[in-house]
Amino acid sequence: MSELRVSRERLWDSIVETSKFGATPAGGMNRLTLSDDDKLARDWFVAACRDVGCTVTVDDVGNIFARRPGRDNSRLPIAIGSHLDTQPMGGRFDGVAGVLCGLEVLRTLDGAGHMTESPIEVINWTNEEGSRFAPTMIASGVFAGIYTSEFARGVKDRDGKTFGGELERIGYLGTTPAGNHPLDAYFELHIEQGPILYDEGTTIGVVTGAQGQLWYEITVTGRAGHAGSTPMHLRKDAMLACARITEAVNSIAKAHGPAGVGTVGLVELKPNSRNVIPGEAFLTADLRHPDGGRLRSMGAELEAAVGRVAVETDTSIEVRNVFDLPPMQFDAGCVSIVRDAVEGLGYSHRDLFSGPGHDAVYVARVAPAAMVFVPCERGLSHNEAEYATPEDLEAGANVLLHALLERDGRATGGGADV
Ligand SMILES: [Zn+2]
Predict the structure, then answer these.
(1) Whole-number pLDDT of residue 411
(2) What pTM value is reported for the model?
(3) Ligand 1 centroid to 190 CA: how many Å?
């Protein structure tokens, strides 16, 4: 294995430096996509990449590609990427860590004068968070052919400003059509956004795939009535049904645990008055499991439970499946390259499935891809207190560096040692 290693201090300095753009008083980030602060972070990233000899192109949904030439530029690029945008009260690491670890890999190669065989690209995907413009991961979605550029550019924020108009305003409406951009491989580092690595004290998560998701909207119709004068046996209480469905979601997830998870996160009651029996309840259910068969079972069990609750509570209940994302596996070759890199570097590691969605999930539809997770303190994310240590970020960046060198070596059929 090559002796090349990233610089912990330089990587941490770049985290500190970029967290000026959209800093919140409590130490978090508010860098909504295509805001003025997003422009400043993008400008900083582009300048830093040009400083190490990259050419920078921007596509027509604002994705930024910083390309470092290789010895053989007819080869497909090996890419590293993530996102610079944040939630309105987000942290300094979600997404940003992946882009800056990619930059640190470029700087390390540049500092060592190491010329790869294949060109290298570091990518910033626009609007991963989906907070200002829905849906989430829209620009990696265009890259992967899931949405058209026209669709993405026409999406409006709450103030009626379009994605395309805001791209133009901040100077990042590129001319290259998004997509049709083949990659030899794509690696994305991200904080775990969950507690497993932190609780175990494990340094690296080798991400083998992403969970499947089933989302439901459930409407319970009961009968509103007086809280004082309606006997219990005559009630059609929509809230009671809602509570029992919530209990069912929880017990179904536990029965398919530890990998299965289930959440009722949104409830609306009508009329929502303290002395009226609720006549209607609207709730959402979010079921996730890495195994497609188990996920379908969870869905079927939820529908059966809803049927029972309707009978027990004398209500009628309508269930609508509004999102159905099958579980996905990352490319076995890329995953084993990541695992080999971690083992070669001597970091503690475990395999993980991703709970959240990431740009890599879409990119994986058009290129061999894998992900690297690093711990975040107490699993906290989408929170101003989000934190990852310099040591863990250094480890993650070293894993990216060596996964890339290994891929580069395999592509050429030779060793990657300098
Ligand atoms: Zn993210």
Answers:
(1) 64
(2) 0.85
(3) 7
